[in-house]
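okkk here we go again. third time trying to get the nicotinamide-adenine-dinucleotide bound version out, last two times i messed up the smiles copy paste (missing a bracket lol). double checked this time i swear
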Amino acid sequence: MQISVIGCGYLGAVHAASMAELGHDVVGIDVNEDKVALLSAGKAPFHEPGFEELLQRGVASGRLRFSTDFAAVAGARVHFIGVGTPQQAGSYAADMSQVNGAVANLLPHLAPTADGPVLVVGKSTVPVGTAAGIADQVTAAGGVLVWNPEFLREGFAVQDTISPDRMVYGLSPDPEAARLGQEVLDEVYDNLITTQGIPRLLTDYATAELVKVAANSFLATKISFINAMAELCEATGADVTQLAAAIGHDDRIGHKFLRAGVGFGGGCLPKDIRAFMARAEELGVDEALGFLREVDSINDRRRDHVLTLATDLLDGAVSGKKVAVLGASFKPDTDDMRNSPALDIAHRLAGAGAHVAVTDPQAGPILAAQDNHGLTVADTAEDAITGADVVLLLTEWRQFRDLDPAAVKDLANRPAIIDGRNVLDPAQWRAAGWTYHGMGRP
Ligand SMILES: NC(=O)c1ccc[n+]([C@@H]2O[C@H](COP(=O)([O-])OP(=O)(O)OC[C@H]3O[C@@H](n4cnc5c(N)ncnc54)[C@H](O)[C@@H]3O)[C@@H](O)[C@H]2O)c1
Ligand SMILES: O=c1ccn([C@@H]2O[C@H](COP(=O)(O)OP(=O)(O)O[C@H]3O[C@H](CO)[C@@H](O)[C@H](O)[C@H]3O)[C@@H](O)[C@H]2O)c(=O)[nH]1
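finally!!
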C-alpha cells in the first residue's frame, strides 16, 4: 500500500521505515531539510538501536523515500501524522502548531481514490478532543480519520513499532467511516494482526486519545511513587531498592517502572502529564488530575535532591569545584536530551559556578557541537572523572555501570560518587575507597 508519514522525528522516521519493512511503499515528509537529506542517504539523524539498518534496507529496496515537498504525498492511501506536540513556552498546554500545519497540508490530498477513501491516521500524542476537530476537516475534504496513538519507547522504538503490546484504533462516530477506517488500517497492519496476533482495541476518538495520556500518566505516577518512597527511605535509613523489589513481587504491583533515582525526563512523560493537566483544567475537571501535580513536583524534587547532595559533598560550596557528570541523554540507548534530568542538573551546577565535565556515549558529540552553556564535554568517563571533586552518575549507560571503581579512583581529586540511578554496587565502590551516595539507599 502507498503510505505517507508526516513528521520524521523519533516516532515518524521509525514508523516510516517500519511500514516499508512490512512491505508498504512509503514516503516520509519533514520540514527539516537536513533530516530529510540524512534519511534519504540511509543515515539515522538520531541514535536508536536497529533503526539505521532498517532505514538502509527500506531505502535500498526502493520502498522508502523522504522529501520536504508535501506534493510527494500524492497518491498515498494512508497518511500517518507523527509530528511533534511539545510543551508550549510559558504554559503546560501542548503546542499544536505542528499538527495543525500537517493537517492543513494534507487536506488537498484527501479526495477518494479508485480503491476507496483516503485515510488520515493520527499517531502524535494530543489533548483529548483534538481528533474530533481534525475529523471534521478531514471528512469535509473527502477523507476518513482514525486516531491510532503510539506507545513506543526510545531505545526500543523499532521493536515496539513492529511488534507493539497493543494497538488502539480511535474510530469515527459515523459507522461507515469507522468501518472503512478499520478496514484500511487493518490492511496496513495485517502482519501485526494476522501473523503476530497483537491485540487491537477498537474505540472512539476521545478514548483513544485518553488511553495514550492515561498510560503515560500511570507510568509517571509509578516512578514518582517510588521516588516518594525514596524520600521516606532517605529520612529513615531504609533502602528503596529492597522496598521496590519486595512490593514488586505482588503481581498487582509488578517490578517494572519502580526504579528510584533522579526521576523521569524525555520528550514524552514530562510534557504529556502537563498537557493532560492543562486539558483537564479546560474541561473543568482539573481536580481529577490533582495528583499529577504531585507526580510532577516529586519528580522535580529528585533533581533538587541531587544538587543538595552534591553541594554537601563539596563542603557547601559548588563554585570553582570540578564536577563529573556521567550521562546527558534522558535515559540510556538514546541521544535524546529533551528534558533530561542529567543535563538539567549539569546546567544548574555550571550555573552555580562549578566546572562541569559531561560525558555521554551518544549525546556527548551532539552536546559538544551546540551551545552547551559552559559545560565541558569529555570523550570518556575517565576523562570526565579526572580531577573531579565529585562524580554524578545520572544516565545509566552500560559504560558507566561497568566502571571499575578501583581503576578510576586515583583519577578523581576526591573519590566521591552520587549514583543517581542506583546501578552501582555500593559495597564494591566503598571497598575501593569511594564515598558512595545512592538514591533512597543508606
Ligand atoms: N518519541 C517518542 O518516543 C514518542 C513515542 C510515542 C508518541 N510520541 C509522540 O509522537 C509525536 C512526535 O514525537 P517525536 O519525539 O517524534 O518528535 P520530534 O520532534 O522528534 O519529531 C517531529 C518531527 O516533525 C517535523 N515537523 C514539524 N512540523 C511539521 C510539518 N508541518 N510537516 C512535516 N513535518 C513537520 C519536525 O521537523 C520533526 O522532525 C509527539 O506527539 C510525541 O508526543 C513520541
Ligand atoms: O523505573 C523507572 C523507569 C523509567 N524512569 C525514567 O523515566 C523516563 C522515561 O522512560 P521511558 O518511559 O522508558 O522512556 P520514553 O522513551 O520517554 O517512553 C515513554 O514515553 C513514550 C512517549 O509517549 C511512550 O510511548 C512510552 O510508552 C513511554 O514509556 C526516563 O527518564 C527514565 O530514566 C525512571 O526514572 N524509573
